[in-house]
Write a structure and sequence with these properties.
The structure holds two protein chains of two kinds. Chain A is an all-alpha fold. Chain A has helices at 2-34, 38-58, 62-83, 88-109, 118-122, 130-159, 161-166, 171-193, 195-209, 216-241, 245-276. In chain A, 85% of the residues lie in helices and 0% in strands. The model of chain A has no long low-confidence stretch (mean pLDDT 88). Chain B has one domain (7-219): P-loop containing nucleotide triphosphate hydrolases (Rossmann fold), CATH 3.40.50. Chain B is built from nine helices and nine strands. Chain B has helices at 47-55, 96-101, 113-126, 142-154, 175-186, 221-227, 241-247, 253-265, 269-276, and strands at 7-18, 21-32, 36-40, 62-67, 79-82, 160-164, 190-194, 207-212, 214-218. Chain B has a six-stranded mixed sheet with strand order 5-6-7-3-8-9, with helices on both faces. The radius of gyration of chain B is 19 Å and the shape is globular. Chain B starts with 6 loop residues before the first strand and ends with a helix. Mean pLDDT of chain B is 77; it is low at 229-252.
């Protein structure tokens, strides 16, 4: 009986984590993709390992220290983004290198810590804790409230930042909030889902749905549903064959993208041919 | 009948320079409500700088610019600006209707959802794009996009509309409807349009400004003709415009269109220099 309750509670944490991560990546991924910030988010995702390394090295909870480290990096990236926009790619490369190198170095020299880096690359859903679920839920709640208040402003900034600025909207401030939200959330997610799956889920759904849907809000909702499906299929396959969940789910995400994208393009070609006849 | 009572834009002995030197010198003119000023001039002549002075983005090095009697930055909410290039995120999933509705942010008062929706419908109708309201912005033509941008600016009901080369993306076949749209808009607001395309001449243009460091405003065709008469070398053109203009001055809008079209065929620095000729 106790075993059953523990198992249900364990499953509940996994399902909640999957639901929360799917929602967070659907929202942030949509803005990242449509603002062409994928390279920035990818660099921040990798650089987050630095914060995780610092947390492990000093013996503080990862969930506490890693987001603070990522926030500092996010702030620096935003400043550089506005000061030296043409060189932002090089700066992001350096951020990536710094975060990864620092993270791996500190984890390696931390006494008594298992030096298995595949956990950071592919995550480990089975190790999700209740605290992590609560933090993810709180972050999602904050992002949803922010989105509800600023949705139209964010839409305008993403579409035409110059006009938004003319309208008196604080474009730099709003962009800073977006990058900081990304910086704060990514280390929380990669601890559970891993770097590879996080990067895949940020882009896959928005890229697929932008082909057919002309509404950012709807794209977010459909992205959330697709992320849930990707997680579901990945978890089922990994349990069935006893394969690693993170890497299988990442492959499922990319596979769905390739099939979905090809199908959409093919449908478009067929429709165009029919119309031209 | 135009309301000629109140001054919308006023330049008083304005000089403006960038680091490399003066772009505008001794600019002195004023526009009244519902005036439609067409600004011509060579590249680098100071046309866009002039618009930026009106918007308060540039500050005069010397002299005063007033918009409705106030500093331009105070009157900013009364000014709508359509830039030369529309620097939008082209693949962004947004409908034409949404783009127009986002113009409500320009308004100096908070609009209710109902007001935003009503104004959006009205402006989509006025610019003739109701049929494509639900289409993706990036999938409509350049000319339609330009109309959407004008509708977006008009959502805030500005009292001055500044247009910087708005005809760049417009097909020649659509020029009449575009000119008609601008003429309709100018019944309500002061319009200042920078262009190099003289074949786009809305009927309500009542002033033509020639900008090349200095600004010379021509209030009528006869004033233009005084500066560039169709006598001598300009008179011997195939279209025969010369004789038309030589016979009478105030021959109306079409006459002005033909005249400017002729200039357009001969556009070069000499023409602009002639236009810039200050009367003695």
């Amino acid at each position: 009986m106790i075993d059953l309750i523990t198992e249900i509670s364990f499953l509940k944490s996994i399902l909640l984590a999957v639901g929360l991560i799917s929602a967070l990546l659907a929202i942030l991924g949509t803005f990242v993709t449509f603002n062409n910030l994928n390279y920035l988010s990818s660099s921040l995702t990798h650089a987050s390992l630095g914060g995780i390394g610092v947390a492990i090295f000093v013996g503080l909870p990862v969930i506490l220290l890693a987001p603070v480290f990522a926030l500092l990096l996010g702030g620096a990236v935003t400043i550089f983004f506005y000061k030296e926009k043409s060189r932002i790619g090089s700066f992001l490369d350096l951020t990536y290198a710094l975060g990864m190198a620092l993270g791996i170095f500190l984890i390696t020299i931390s006494p008594g810590y298992q030096k298995d880096f595949s956990g950071f690359l592919f995550g480990n859903l089975l190790l999700v804790s209740d605290t992590e679920v609560y933090v993810l839920a709180a972050v999602l709640a904050m992002i949803l409230i922010y989105l509800a208040i600023n949705y139209r402003k964010l839409l305008l900034i993403s579409f035409d930042a110059q006009f938004a600025s003319t309208c008196g909207i604080n474009v730099k401030g709003q962009s800073l909030v977006l990058i900081l939200a990304l910086a704060f959330t990514l280390p929380l997610i990669i601890k559970i889902a891993g770097i590879t799956l996080t990067i895949a889920l940020i882009s896959v759904a928005p890229l697929l749905f932008e082909q057919r849907i002309i509404s950012v809000g709807k794209i977010m909702i459909f992205s959330y549903l697709l992320n849930l499906i990707i997680f579901g299929v990945g978890i089922v396959i990994s349990f069935w064959f006893d394969w690693p969940t993170g890497s299988i789910t990442s492959l499922v995400a990319v596979g769905i993208f390739v099939i979905g994208y090809s199908a959409l393009k093919l449908t478009k070609v067929i429709t165009n041919k029919r119309q031209s006849r | 009948m135009r309301n000629t009572q109140s001054v919308a834009i006023e330049f008083k002995d304005v000089y403006f320079k960038y680091q490399q030197g003066y772009i505008l010198e001794k600019v002195d003119f004023s526009l009244r409500k519902q005036d439609f000023l067409l600004i011509l001039g060579p590249n680098g002549g100071g046309k866009t700088s002039l618009l930026k002075l009106i918007m308060g983005i540039n500050r005069p090095t010397q002299g005063k610019v007033k918009v409705f009697g106030e500093e331009p930055h105070i009157s900013k909410p009364k000014i709508g600006y359509v830039p030369q290039n529309i620097p939008v995120n082209d693949r962004f999933p947004i409908t034409v209707e949404q783009v127009v509705s986002l113009g409500s942010f320009l308004s100096n008062k908070t609009l209710s959802r109902h007001e935003i929706s009503q104004r959006t419908k009205t402006w989509l109708d006025k610019v003739g794009l109701t049929k494509v309201a639900k289409s993706r912005f990036c999938e409509i033509s350049g000319g339609q996009q330009q109309r959407v941008i004008i509708a977006r600016v008009m959502m805030s009901q500005p009292e001055i509309l500044l247009l910087d080369e708005p005809t760049n993306n417009i097909d020649i076949e659509l020029k009449d409807s575009f000119c008609q749209l601008l003429s309709n808009i100018s019944k309500q607001v002061t319009v200042v349009m920078v262009t190099h395309e003289l074949s786009f001449l809305p009927k309500s243009v009542n002033k033509i400004g020639c900008v090349e460091k200095k600004v010379v405003i021509h209030g009528s065709l006869s004033s233009l003709e005084e500066d560039i008469p169709f006598h001598g070398e300009h008179n011997n053109n195939k279209s025969g415009h010369g004789s038309t203009h030589a016979e009478g001055h105030d021959c109306g809008h079409q006459c002005m269109v033909d005249y400017l079209a002729h200039l357009n065929n001969n556009t070069n620095l000499d023409i602009y220099k002639s236009l810039m000729k200050t009367k003695t």
